[in-house]
Structures are given as structure tokens and as C-alpha cells.
Amino acid sequence: MVYIFQQSLNALQLGSIYALIALGYTMVYGILTMINFAHGDLFMVGAFFCFLIAVYLHLSFVPTLLLSMLGVAFLGIVIERLAYKPLRNAPRVSAIITALGVGLFLENFTLALSPYPKHIPQLLENITWTIGSFSISSLQILIIVLSLVLMLILDFIVQKTKAGMAMRAISWDKTIVPLMGVSVNKIISLTFAIGTGLGGAAGVMYGLAYPVIDPYMGIMVGWKAFICAVVGGIGNIRGAMIGGFILGGVEILVAAFLPSTYRDVVAFTLLLVLLIVRPYGILGKPQPQKV
Amino acid sequence: MSKLPNASHSSLIERWHMLTGSRLFWAIVMIAGLAFCMAASTYEFLDLYLQLILIYVGINIILTVSLNLINGYMGEFSVGHAGFMAVGAYVASLLTVHVFPPGAQNLLFPLAILAGGIGAALVGFLVAIPSFKTRGDYLAIVTLAFCMIVKSVLENIDAVGGPRGLLGMEKLTTLPWVFFWTALSVWVIRNLVYSNFGRGVLSIREDEIASDLMSVNTRQVKIIAFVVSSFFAGIAGGLFAHALQFINPRMFDILKSTDILIMVYLGGIASIAGSIIGAVIYTILLEVLRPLGVWRMVLMPLMLVLLMIYRPRGIMGLKEIRLFMPLRDLVTEKLWRQKKKEAPDASA
Amino acid sequence: MPLLEIQKLTHRFAGLCAVSDFNFAIEPQELVGIIGPNGAGKTTVFNLITGVYRASEGSIKLDDQELVGLTPHAITKRGIARTFQNIRLFKELSVLDNVRIAHYGQIAYTPTEALLHIGRFRAEEKRITNQALDLLSIFKLDEMASEKAKNLPYGLQRRLEIARALATKPRLLLLDEPAAGMNPNEIIQLMEFIGWIRKTFSVTIILIEHQMRLVMGICERLVVLDFGATIAQGLCSEIQNNPKVLEAYLGVEVAQ
Q1: Inter-chain residue contact B348 with C138, CB threshold 8 Å
Q2: What domains can you pick out in chain A, each with its CATH number?
Q3: For residue B80, which of B46, B147, B298, C216 is within the disulfide window of CB 3.0 to 4.6 Å?
Q4: Which residues, in sequence order, are bridge partners of residue A119?
Q5: Do the Cβ atoms of C104 and B199 come within 8 Å?
């Protein structure tokens, strides 16, 4: 019983991180119908920014987190302007391949600059409380709470602010919105900034939880988060959160009861089954085909 | 073979098309090529390093042309091609290492490759089934999950070496074999594209519902496309395994699929010539840039991004060179117009 | 015996009843029109007949054989073809290929023969290409056989769509708003064109249309739908003055 509780906590932690990354995918997809395959690598860049800031600027946790998020957000805007904007009217696959290219560039650029894995110094005092055989660490609580806070802020922005309303409008009809006096480019940049910023935050948290980072860490995580976004119904923000927690839960549960090498197989098979049963994701709606 | 009625009017170009449309011509060219490759490999008058490059070019051509069938011609976004390659590699390797008697390996090599292709085709059939109901990004996920599942399953089966992989393959992949299989793949896939099944594939990309309503059995077409595509990926896998002489699951993960995707889109979707160009350029460029070390893989994606920005459809996007188009079509049309001119009142 | 017989056809989507208790029969060689305000369910009926949707209730029989539950391509092979409200040609393919694809159901070679270009392949391909070109020539489209469908002017695209449908050798042809976007002159030409198709190909035709001149000009009988239900059936002259029909199109006050 306690074991399940313990694992649930681990699942929440991992799920939060996946959810934050999945949100970035889904936000960009919702607005541009584009899958930003470089997103996982931006998550990795977030972790590396955290490393650089912690090691060379010796800042404490909160400034490190904020600076990393800002750094990644800025990088996201730059990438969007340079690589994705020219392809807004090109066939979708071209944009996807470009995203793959950007991702590869980020991975290998980081690798070229930092051939060996790096270790993030401990920025926070990690207190562990033990009740019987059940232990909970302050880091776990921080990750879960921080993620939830960020998600709530995002939800607020999208649902209750003018910018958020513009984002939702663009996702329905890109051509009409500029006629209403909204700068589409600004909103798209803002969307990228927020989406990638969240990914960067996830990178920082991941770095704190699992302190050894390497340039290829974003690949698997990125594709997994993409699956989460699709399972939740791509383009749907709440769906992305749900998808993230489902994958986190499944992975931890599988690792808890089966040999750890089975983790990926079972997780992916379950997600595949889920998609076959609900082909448009949990909260997704099939695009009605007008015949 | 049908001949144009008034050959005296043919220009040089027409004569060239007539020549390249003839089966005999191609048979001679292929035999000559094969003979050259056999000589090159036996007498080594081609640098060994160069031969290895050509072998990889050939393998990549097979991978690219087969993936183009699904991603280019059918308009899907399959990211699981490395999974089919893995199945082919493992099946072929297991046969040559554990099943075939040691002396007969050279002789039985084509059987091993074929078996790898068939194994991959069976798996391809399974992947075709979800494609009946899902399309687009959701099908991409299915292929992605499939690729990851194959890799994970292989990592968990100790009998095939688990995460450490399989070794002990003989260097059975030679230039002539690669030439043969590459030529075969390109020919078969091109045949498929210029048949009613190929037109069916294209119509699914254009408008699946209209296609179904115009009598196209979309399920049959999808199955054929996935099975043929995965079959050749499996062939490429088998050749790959016996060139490298060592394989492990990590070689066939999403990064490998990404490589193949890049070659397809670089060369141009829905174009056989494009796939060949894409595979050749990508493989050779990677070799040429090798002295740059790690920076090679920094420069490469940058160039890819630039290419996509300035030529989003790839080098030969949606265009095909005349060489690959069956002469028969054009001859039939020409003959029909001839007949019409002579008897304008004759109607169906 | 009626060529097509529909009984108690009902179709629901997400709580809405798109078509309710639709009954219909058409004899060979007839030309019947289905009319009604926008959203009345007319195209849904076409989608149900051709198998795009599977009917929630009811039966659709062609020559007394049940069609409900069959895949669209199986229904097309049985002899029903259609055109679409918004043209659905294969835009990137050539005019010739658009028509050749419609021959899919008639092709006699196997996948293996196609992969290796052996056996019946060459002869069949030649036959199909010639048939397609013959058909295009009847429709005066053969000059642009190699042109991409998307490059054709609108009127020719509509013509190509009809040619493509006829390539499947149907006994029943469903035309969905063929006059959309046409001016009065073009409509007169279309009327003659449809008459000519009937004669040349001996097809039975069901027509959905809003242009009353076309409808009254060539339809023998009419069925009127509104909100998924049949509100009137009969000869054109009867329908013209039917108060329920006027009400549906023009509102209660005008009907009174």
C-alpha cells in the first residue's frame, strides 16, 4: 500500500515534467498546426542553461530557474523567426523536417561544445521526510507544486487574457485574426515563448531531480512528450496535462512491478492501444470531414 | 515492344527515350553494371573505402525509395522505418550466424536477405492495419510507437543479444549484391508506382474519401504499400547487418528513422529520382564532412534547414525524370491520338 | 422493379437527426431531383447511399441487394457513382490519371503482376489507357490529358468530375449540385449535357440542386427534404405549388 503511494509520488513528479513539455508541443500545434520536433531539445537546452548559470554565475534556485526559462524562451522566439516563419505557408512536412533539423542542430551543437555529460550542482537543500517506510523529499514537492503552478498560470493566460483569446482565435482561423487588429506574428512569438519557456522550466527541474545531463537527453523525452500531447488530444491544453501524467504514471508503475528494461515497451504498447481505442486522443475531437 | 509508327520524324531525344524505354536496353545496362561491380569487388580496382561508401549509398537508396512510397506517394508521415530495417537485419543475421551451415553462407546469403525482407513485410502488414482508421499525426504516433517497441523488444530478448546486440556476421554484403538489390528495389517500386495500385496510392494522398468512392479499394492499397515498403526496408537491414558485421538495437532507433526521413524530404517527395538523389547526397556529404568531426552534424542540419526554407518540397519534389516513367504510357497515348486523327468520327 | 429502393432510412449524428424516415424508389432510366433548403440532409442521403456514412437505421437496396454496411468502393463496384458539391478531383494528378484511377475496380491484374510488370499487366494498362482516353474524348477533355487537374478552369473541372464518375461504369449516377457557380447560359448547356449523358450512357440519375430552372427543366419527379424529413414528393408541377415546400424555402408568411 505504502509502496503504491510512494510510486504515485514518483509518478506525479515524472508526470509533471512530461506534462510541462507536452504543453509546449500542444500550444505550438494548436496555433500553427506544426509539430515542433525541436521542443525536446529545447528542454535539454533549459537543463544546460541551468548548469551554466549555476556553475558560472553562482546564482540561487529562483534566479536560475527564471533566467533559464527566459533564455529558452528567447531561443524559442529566435528559432521561430528564423526557421519556422518562412515556412508558414509551405507544406506541413517541410516545417516538420525543418524542426527535426533544428533539433539535430541543437543536440550536436551542444555536444560539440560539451562532449562530456555535465553535473548540475545542488541548488536547493533537499530535505527528506520519512514516515515509516514512506519517504517524501522537498524536491519532489517542489517539482510537483511548481509544475502545477505553471500550468495554472498557463491556463489563466489562455482562458482569461486578451493574448490568450488571440491565441485561441488564431488556432481556429489564422487569416481572419489580423483583420481584427491583432498582430499574428506577436501572438505566435508569445506562444512560442511560453511553450518553450515551460519546456525550459521542465529542463531545470529535470536537472535538479536527475543531476547528470547530456546533449541527447532531450530526444527520448521529446518524443515521449509528443506522444503525451497526442494521447491527450493534440492541440488541447488540458489533454496535454492529462497525457503527461498518464505516461508518467504508466512508466513508474511498469518500472515498479516489472524489470526496468520492460518500461518503454509496455508504456508505448499501452499508449498505442489507447490511441487505437480513442484514435483522436482522450480529449481530442475528430476533424469533421465534409463530404 | 511497340514502336512509334513514324520513326523517321524522331529527334535525337525521342530516340533516347525509345532506347531507355526498352527492356532489352535496361537488361544490358544492369548486367554490365553487375559485371563491373563483381570485377571491382574481386579485383579491387576500386578503392575498398570507395566500395564501402557505394555500399552504404545503395543501402540508403533502398531505404529512401521505400519510405518515399509511404511518406511521399501516399502522403503519410511514418517515422518507424528503422523498425522494419531492424527486423530485416536481425532475421537475416540470425539465419546466417545460427542457422546456415558455415560453408554455404555465400550461397545462401540472398535467402537470408529475402527472409529478412519477408519478416519485415509481415510486421509491415501489422502496421498497415491502424492506418485504415487513423491518418496524419495520429498515424505518425503509431509508427513512432512501433519503432520504439521493436527496439525495446529486441533489447529485452537475450537470445538475440539484448542491448549488447548481435555479432559474428560474415562480410557477405559486397558491391555486386548491393547493386543487385538496389536495382531491384528501385525497379519494383517504380513498377508499383506506375500501376493502378500506384495511382491508388496517389489518390489516397489526394483525397481518400473520393478515392474510395471511385472504386479504389483503399484498404488493399494501404496494405500493399506498407508491405512493399517494409519489405525493402528489411532487405536494406539485412544488407546493412552484413556490411557492418555487428548490430544492436540502438542502431535502429528514432534517430535512424530521422536520418531516412531527411533523405526522403531532401531528395523530394513522391519522386524516385529524388529519393536516389537524396540518398546519394546525404551519404556522400556525411562522408565528405567527416574531417569536421562533431561539427559535421552541426553543419548538416543547418544546411537541411536552409534547404527546406528555400526549397520546401525538396530537390525533386513531386517531379519525376522521364527515365523512370514507363514508355508504354506515352506510346499508348501517342498511338491513340494517331488513330483519332485518322478516324475522327470513331467514338466509344 | 425499382433500380434503387430506400426504406425507412434514418441517420443520427451526435444527437441530431440528419435524415429521418426517408423512403424513396427510382426506376431505371428515370431522372429524379432531391431539393430542399440548405442543411436539409440532401448530401447526407447521398453519403448514406454511397457508403460514406453507415445508416443508423433503414435499408438501401440496389437491384434488391442490400447496400447498407458495404464499403464505398464495393458500392461503387455495384454500379453507383457520384460527384461532389465541392469538386473533389485529384488535384495534383493529371486529367488522364483522374479517369484511370476510376478504373481500379475493373482491373484484372494482381499486385504481383503489377510489381513485376508481367502477365496481364501491360495489356490491361493499355486497355485502361485507351478506354480513359476514349471517355475523355467524348467529353472533349482529351486535349488536356496530361494537364494537372488543378490547372483546369472551373467548368472543365466539373466536367472532368462527371467523366471520372462515369468511368466506373455506373448504372446510377448521383450528381450533387452540378450547377453550383454557373450563370444562366451555362445552366442551359448543363441541362442539355445531362440529357445527353442519360442517353449516351443509359444511366439513371438522381440530382441534388438549388437552381430551380435546372430542376424544373429536366427532372421528372422531385423529392423535397427539410430538416431531414421528406415534406413532399411528386411531379414538378405538383411541387411548385405545394404550400409546405414554399414554407420551407420562403417562410411561413409567403406561403400564406
Answers
A1: yes
A2: 2-277 (1.10.3470)
A3: B147
A4: A212
A5: yes
Q: What is the pLDDT of residue B124?
A: 95
- Nearest-Cα distance to chain A for B268, in Å, is 10
Q: Which residue of C has its CA nearest to B204?
A: C90
Closest by Cβ to B329, choosing from C89, C129, C142: C129
User: From the candidates A79, A108, A277, which should be mutated to test the interface with B, based on the most B CB atoms within 10 A?
Assistant: A108
Secondary structure of residue C17 in the 3-state scheme: strand
Of residues C50, C121, C133, nearest to B213 (C-beta): C50
**Domain residue ranges in chain B:** 13-288+297-340
- Round to whole Å and give the CA distance between A284 and A228: 12
Segment 79-98 of chain A within 8 Å of chain B by CB: 83, 86-87, 90-91, 93-98
Choose among B273, B283, B137: nearest CA to A95. B137
Q: Mapping DSSP to helix (H, G, I), strand (E, B) and coil, where does residue A186 land?
A: helix
Inter-chain contact A100–B262, Cβ cutoff 8 Å?
A: yes
Residue B199 contacts C where some CB pair is shorter than 8 Å:
yes
Task: List, as one string, the DSSP characters of C158-222.
Answer: HHHHHHHHHHT--SEEEEESTTTT--HHHHHHHHHHHHHHHHHHT-EEEEE-S-HHHHHHH-SEE
Name beta bridge partners: C34: C208, C223
Q: Which ipTM score applies to this complex? A: 0.91
Q: What pLDDT sits at residue B104?
A: 82
Lowest mean pLDDT among A24-38, B48-62, C87-101: A24-38
Cell numbers 569536421 correspond to what residue? B292
CA distance B111 to chain A (A): 30
Put simply, the answer to whether A112 touches B305 (Cβ < 8 Å) is no
Q: Which chain C residue's Cα is nearest to A289?
A: C52
Q: Over the stretch C38-63, which tens digit does the pLDDT of each residue have?
A: 888 899 999 999 999 999 899 999 99
Percentage of chain A surpassing pLDDT 90? 29
- The Cα B343–Cα B163 span in angstroms is 71
Non-local CB neighbours of A147 within 8 Å, separated by 6+ positions: A16, A17, A19, A20, A202, A205
Chains that touch C (3 or more CB pairs under 8 A): A, B
Closest Cβ–Cβ partner in C114, C145, C165 for B333: C145
Task: Give pLDDT tens digits along chain B (348 positions).
Answer: 444 444 445 678 778 777 887 888 888 999 999 998 888 888 878 888 899 999 999 999 999 999 999 999 998 889 999 999 999 999 999 999 888 888 888 889 999 999 999 999 999 999 898 888 777 777 888 898 889 889 989 988 888 888 889 988 888 888 999 999 999 999 999 999 999 999 999 999 999 999 999 999 999 999 999 999 999 999 999 999 999 999 999 999 888 998 999 999 999 988 999 999 999 999 999 999 999 888 888 998 998 899 888 888 888 877 888 778 888 878 888 888 888 888 776 544
Instruction: Name which of C88, C130, C165 is nearest B332 (Cβ-Cβ).
Output: C130
**For the whole model, what pTM was predicted?**
0.90
229-258 in chain A: CB under 8 A from chain B: 230-231, 234
A158-192 per-position pLDDT tens digit: 888 888 888 888 877 777 777 777 788 888 899 99
Query: Which whole-number Å values give the CA distances from A38 to A210, C238, C254, in the listed order?
Result: 21, 66, 62
Coil vs helix vs strand at A181 = coil
More confident residue, B333 or C95: C95
Distance (Å) from the alpha carbon of B198 to chain C's nearest alpha carbon = 9
The distance in angstroms from the start CA to the end CA of chain A is: 53
Q: Which residues does chain A have within 8 Å of residue C84's beta carbon, measured at their own beta carbons?
A: 291
Question: B13-288+297-340 is classed in which CATH architecture?
Answer: Orthogonal Bundle (1.10)
